[in-house]
Amino acid sequence: MIVRLLYFIHSLNRMRILKRVSQLFLRREGKTFHSTMWTKDFLFKVHPSVSQAVAQNKPVVALESTIITHGMPYPHNLSTAKEVEAIVRDEGATPATVGVIEGEICVGLSSEELEHLARSKSPLKVSRRDLPYVISK
């Protein structure tokens, strides 16, 4: 019981830290979305629609790009990705498909980037542990 309580407290503190870091990150991003096509901070490339939605405290739905790269063959993967993004928009949220393209973690993809991932012949399946390797290559 004590172990569970300690774990809960640890998780709660971790969540507070993550929330604060994300607020600081997003506040910076929210100020610059209109000046360029993409906003870039360190290794993240944030689409303007995602940046704007966060700055305006609107809902954002993160979508994995795995279904595009490993789930279905082309062109079904691309049409499914676009369909899912359209559903998210219809429900009043901003879709933020996440993927790694040319060493950059992209949060929110353009149509061209979705197409690029959909047509990739040998994409890597990336998890958190693989990010340093993939970004460096």
Strand fraction: 15-25%
Percent range of helical residues: 40-55%
- Spatially, the strands of the biggest sheet line up as 1-2-5-4-3
Runs in which pLDDT lies below 50 for 5 or more consecutive residues are: 5-10, 29-39
As a whole number of angstroms, the C-alpha radius of gyration is 17 Å
The oligomerization state is: single chain
Overall outline:
globular
Question: H/E series, N to C?
Answer: HEEHEHHEEHH
Structural class: alpha/beta
Q: How many helix segments?
A: 6
Distance between the termini: 45 Å
Task: Summarize, please.
Keywords: Glycosidase, Hydrolase, Lyase, Manganese, Metal-binding. The chain is α/β, with parallel strands linked by helices.
Explain what this protein looks like in three dimensions.
By secondary structure, the chain is of the alpha/beta class. It has 6 helices and 5 strands; from the N terminus they run αββαβααββαα. The chain has helices at residues 2-32, 48-55, 66-71, 76-90, 111-119, 131-136; strands at 39-41, 44-46, 60-64, 94-101, 104-107. It has a 5-stranded mixed β-sheet. Helix 1 crosses helix 2 and helix 4 runs antiparallel to helix 5. The longest helix is centred in the first third of the chain and has 31 residues, at 2-32. The radius of gyration is 17 Å and the shape is globular.
Topology at a glance:
Blueprint (H helix, E strand, L loop, with lengths): L1 H31 L6 E3 L2 E3 L1 H8 L4 E5 L1 H6 L4 H15 L3 E8 L2 E4 L3 H9 L11 H6 L1
Parallel strand pairs: 2-5, 3-4
Antiparallel strand pairs: 1-2, 4-5
